Amino acid sequence: MTATRALAALAVTATSAALLMTPAAAQAAATQPTAAQSAPITWGPYYAPGKAAKAAGKLTATGEDHADLPTADVVTISGTIQDSTKSASCGWAVFRVTYRSGSNLPNRNHWVRDCSYRTPKHFSVKHHDVYQVELKVCTEAKAAKPSLNCLYAGTWKTLYLSK
User: Fold this and answer.
1) b/e code 120-159 from CB counts within 10 Å (16+ = b)
2) Computed from CA positions of residues 121, 50, 58, 98, in that sequence, does the dihedral angle turn out positive or negative?
3) pLDDT tens, residue by residue, 114-130
4) 130: nearest Cα among 41, 49, 48, 50
5) Cα dihedral value 31, 42, 108, 68, nearest 10
6) Residue 68: band (very low, low, confident or very high) from pLDDT cuts 50, 70, 90
7) Which N-terminal stretch is annotated as signal sequence (predicted)?
8) Per-residue pLDDT tens for 4-63?
9) What is the mean pLDDT of the chain?
10) How far is it, in rounded angstroms, from Cα 56 to Cα 44?
11) CA distance 126 to 58
C-alpha cells in the first residue's frame, strides 16, 4: 500500500512539473543531445611550426559513461594531414589517446604520416573507453614512427575531454 502511494505521488509530481514547464524549456529539454546522439566535433586546422604541415578533421564520441571514470565508449577521429614542405620532410599528426583500463588512465599514441607535397592524406581511427584525445602536428623526416622531439617538445592540443 505504501509503495502504491509513493508511486502515485511521484506520477503526480512528474505530471505537474511537465505542465509547469514553459514551452521554451520543454523544447530545450527535448533537443538536449544524449550520449547516443553526440554530434561530431570539428577540430583544426592545426599547424606544425612554420605551417609546414596542417591537420584538420572531426571527432565523434558516443556512449559517454560518468558512473566511475568518465569515458566515451567509442571515439572516432577522422580527418586529413597535409605536408607543405618541398623537402624530404613529412607531415605528422600524432594523437595521444588516454583510455580507461580498470581504474587507471594510461595513454597510447596513434600517428598518421603524409610525405606527399600538398596532397592531403585522409584517415579515420576508432578507440574504445576514451577519456581524452590530444593532438600534435609536426614535420620531420620519413620514419617508421615520430621522433621523441615530435612527441615531447611543444604542447598538445586537447581535442576531446570526457567530463
Assistant:
1) bbebeeebebbbbbbbbbbbbeeeeebeeebbeeeeeeeb
2) positive
3) 999 989 999 999 999 99
4) 41
5) -20
6) low
7) 1-28
8) 444 444 444 444 444 344 444 434 433 344 444 478 999 999 999 999 999 999 999 999
9) 82
10) 4
11) 12
* Torsion sign over Cα 72, 96, 156, 75: negative
- For residue 149, give the C-alpha cell: 622531439
We find that the CATH architecture of domain 34-161 is Sandwich (2.60)
Q: Give 10's DSSP letter.
A: H
Ramachandran angles phi, psi of 16, nearest 5°? -70, -35
pTM metric for this prediction: 0.75
Half-sphere exposure for 49 (CA within 13 Å, toward CB): 8
Residue with cell 550520449: 35
pLDDT digits (tens, 9 = 90+) for 30-45: 334 444 447 899 999 9
pLDDT at residue 86 is higher than 90:
no
Residue 68, all three cell numbers? 566511475
Burial grade of 31 (CB within 10 A; 0-12, 13-18, 19 or more): exposed
Grid cell of 133 as nine digits: 584525445
